[in-house]
Amino acid sequence: MTDRRPNILLFTTDQHRGDHVGLSGHPVVETPNADSFVEHGAYFPNAYSEIPSPTGARRCLHGGQTTYACGLIGYSGTEWHERNTLAQVLADHGYHCLNVGWRNMHPRRKLYGFHTVIPHDLREGVDDYAEWLCENLGPHARERGHGVDSNGWLARPWHLEERYHPVNWTTETTLDQIRKRDPTKPFFRGTSYLRPHSP
What we know:
Order of helices and strands: EHHHHEEHHE
Largest sheet: 4 strands, parallel
Number of helices: 6
Strand order of the largest sheet: 1-4-2-3
Number of strands: 4
Shape: globular
Low-confidence stretches: none
Number of domains: 2
């Protein structure tokens, strides 16, 4: 018998201000795909991250703790030891849990309660997107082949065909994993995009 509990898709973007989405009434930014998620889900316009560092913000989100309680104030590559992460609690209650995309969690492949992680993490040996890119375009293909650093002030257009962009890879990988999920369990998919992080 199929479990009737709702599926959960946690969709996050990196360095993306909450008021920079179309549904918030921004005068320039258009985000029809993100708006569509809200139309079929939930929108929390007054939610905020108490820490501007994405690493710390993820730790607070996944661990359900404040900055002070989790012990991470800024960017740090330390292992976490939270026992009751969001994914672990859901997994303990029968959810099939998968994390795809930009994790920025340490160590990179630690599950933190997820059954499977498929990371895009800009680190050799732990970036499934980078491996996929090299498999498709050859051993010298690089996400930052345009020469702009991910924390720089400069910007350049994407240098490869659009289908090779990490946003497309993250989306396609998530959809593929949803198709391949255990159909008898509800799913929790943590899908995280590195963009709109610079460049």
